[in-house]
Design a protein that fits this description.
Pfam families: SspH. This protein has 1 helix and 5 strands. It is mostly beta strands.
Length: 63
């Protein structure tokens, strides 16, 4: 995923399915470096990870 698209998803009122290594995640925060983001698994609010934005994949918009 590109940084600009990640920004659009984070700012959007719509819900998008995003995955990291095939696992569904929420984007919590985009970092100022424009390369990384903090994400957490959709089923676990406690477990957060910093990942490369390029490794995030937009699956689809949730209806």
């Amino acid at each position: 995923m590109e940084f600009q698209r990640a920004q659009e998803i984070v700012a959007s009122p719509a819900e998008y399915e995003v995955s990291y290594n095939g696992v569904s995640v929420w984007i919590d925060k985009l970092h100022d470096d424009g390369k990384t983001a903090t994400v957490h698994l959709r089923r676990s609010l406690e477990e957060r990870s910093e990942v490369a934005i390029t490794e995030l994949k937009e699956e689809h918009q949730v209806h």
